[in-house]
Specification:
- By secondary structure, the protein is an alpha+beta fold.
- It has two domains: 34 residues; 144 residues, no CATH class.
- Helices cover 41% and strands 21% of the residues.
- The protein is built from five helices and six strands, in the order αββαββααββα.
- A hairpin with a 4-residue loop joins β1 and β2.
- α4 packs across α5.
- The protein is elongated, with a radius of gyration of 28 Å.
Length: 199
């Protein structure tokens, strides 16, 4: 026969374990049912490029008049061509992702990489937020492409063609209009820029 104290202790332990199980089950139910805050996409600026401050000309898109305007800015640029190209495009994106931008892009828009391939080819790899956050429309997309390509070709001598990728892959269009399936000819873009520049 089981002693009475063991029976009482066993019953108490069993009751405590049942109560703890119910408590844990309620905590889990409450955790699962609680709304989760959405992750906020933030633009993470790359570390500043090493090198002296240098005056460069960039081509900034203005949506309202549908123009590209030359702007002189001072940014730190590395001596290597590829790092220089990345610094130039990131400077343009800082203008476009800033508050009251003349050509707003999504806050998470980034240039992932720029590859300079000889002879005269630049490959620009944009992230998905850049493409998904681009305002759809022929003029808006043309302004984005012309701004980036003309800024690169003005500051990086010897460029003849530019290829745009999104997340390392080819894509048919930027946001439904600008054709990304082929290569952009730098000379043709320069002619487009003339037509988009204020008279």
């Amino acid at each position: 026969m089981i002693p009475r104290q063991f029976l009482i202790t066993g019953t108490l332990l069993f009751a405590v374990s049942i109560a703890m199980s119910i408590y844990v089950w309620q905590l889990r139910r409450r955790e699962i049912g609680a709304p989760r805050p959405e992750a906020k996409v933030e633009h993470v600026a790359p570390p500043p490029a090493a090198g002296p401050m240098e005056q460069v000309s960039v081509y900034v898109a203005y949506d309202d008049p549908g123009e590209l305007r030359t702007q002189s800015i001072s940014i730190p640029l590395a001596s290597g061509r590829q790092q220089r190209a990345e610094g130039l495009l990131r400077a343009i994106l800082n203008i476009y992702t800033a508050k009251n931008s003349p050509h707003p892009l999504a806050p998470g828009a980034e240039v992932r990489d720029v590859f300079l391939v000889d002879p005269g080819l630049a490959v620009i790899d944009l992230n998905l937020a850049f493409a998904d956050g681009q305002v759809s429309g022929m003029l808006a997309e043309e302004l984005t492409m012309a701004s980036m390509i003309q800024t690169l070709s003005t500051n990086i001598p010897g460029l003849a063609r530019v290829k745009i990728l999104v997340d390392g892959k080819e894509r048919e269009t930027l946001a439904g209009h600008a054709d990304l399936s082929g290569f952009y000819d730098v000379q043709q873009i320069a002619e487009v820029v003339k037509g988009l520049s204020p008279q």
